[in-house]
Amino acid sequence: MLVLQEQEQPTLEGENLVLFTGNSNPQLAHAIAEYLDVPLGKALVGRFTNGELRVQIEENVRGQEVFIVQPTCGNVNDTLMELLVMCDALTRASAKTITALVPYYGYARQEKKTTGREPITAKLVANLMTSAGCDRVITVDLHAAAIQGFFDIPVDNLMAMPIVVDYFRNKDIRKEDLVVVSPDAGGVTRARIFAERLGAGLAIIFKRRPRPDAVDVMDFVGDIEGKTALIVDDIISTGGTLLRGVDLLIEKGAKRVFAATTHGLFAGNAVEAIEASPIEEVIVTDTVPVSSTARSGKITVLSVAPLLGETIRRNYFNLSVSKLFG
Ligand code: R5P
After folding, report:
1. Is 207 known to be catalytic?
2. Torsion angle (degrees, nearest 10) of CA 255, 160, 191, 273
3. How many angstroms does the Cα of residue 237 sit away from the middle of ligand 1?
4. How would you label 13-32 residue by residue, b for 16+ Cβ within 10 Å and e otherwise?
5. Domain containing 103: what range?
6. Is the CB of 237 under 6 A from ligand 1?
7. pTM of the predicted structure, to 2 decimals
8. How confident is the model over 283-307, as a mean pLDDT?
9. How many domains would you assign to the chain?
């Protein structure tokens, strides 16, 4: 269970904390501000006529602990650049500390070279954020936990897992009938944690990417016959990984299939493909805004705002963040 605000913990009223947002997920920033009961800081984050970013911090931040909410999603290059330029403006305005709240870390899937002459863009982004003045990063379900090591500043890599587990526990599914499925070898640790929390079984799909954005399923380990499957992943992009997994699980005898994914990018025709598939429900969070056009009757969006708000509060008062995860 997610343990949120304990009684008699300090509130932020009158404290030296300012929360800003860029343009990538202002809805989430507003929800976090509401959780913390603080107003959002005033800043202009726009464009000059020639397309260059124009940032103006419109209130005093000297000596303040500043948090910027800006998942690097949507047009990832633009949203990343907004974050960097905001950090620069805040550094030059003498903020005491700058924490980048990047619930979805774009370029995370480029965290290693898989063939010769490729970049490690996730590391480049870490370098850029640090150079721009970030003192600390708060993120959710990094594609690879090792990305924390790309930074020489503290990184809180939070899990959306307790929020999803709380939601899923309220479904009328006997734990003996439930199997958590990792859709690839890289996700086994995440799936195991879900399985332990839900008291469910564990199964693994092994996939291969013959080329970018294409998926081949290679193998399956586990027993799914007559069971309910919960596929657990960090990202849905094209939906290829998920939907190949759904087909395989149905073929192996799964009775019902659900999915829980932290970051719903829904690229290309992912939503239409989900609608047309036998999957019952896809649970995502609002780390990335799920636009109304991307919503379907099968997609449920859970909010990470209380989790992020509480993490900000705990960072500010130097309280444990890991305690949130029980
Ligand atoms: C890959 O390792 C990730 O964990 C996701 O499974 C993947 O990024 C999803 O992408 P897509 O939806 O395009 O298959």
Report:
1. yes
2. 50
3. 6
4. eeeebbbbbbbbbeebbebb
5. 17-159+305-325
6. yes
7. 0.96
8. 93
9. 2
pLDDT at 6 (0 to 100): 60
Asked if residues 68 and 43 have their Cβ atoms less than 8 Å apart, the reply is no
Q: What is the arithmetic mean of pLDDT over 287-293?
A: 88
CB of residue 71 inside a 6 A radius of ligand 1: no
Say yes or no: 173 and 217 in one domain. Answer: yes
With a 6 Å cutoff on the Cβ, whether 110 touches ligand 1 is no
Q: Is 38 within the bounds of a domain?
A: yes
What digits encode the pLDDT tens for the residues 187-231? 999 999 999 999 999 999 998 888 888 888 778 999 999 999 999
Ligand 1 atom closest to Cα of residue 215: 14
pLDDT digits (tens, 9 = 90+) for 105-144: 999 999 999 999 999 999 999 999 999 999 999 999 999 9
CATH at 196: 3.40.50.2020
